[in-house]
Amino acid sequence: MDDLNALADEHLAAARASAHGRSAHRLLHEEPLRQTVIALTSGSALDEHNAPAAASLQVLRGRVRLTAASGDVELGAGGLHPIPQERHGLLALEDAVVLLTAVND
Question: Residue 19: what pLDDT?
Answer without folding.
Answer: 94
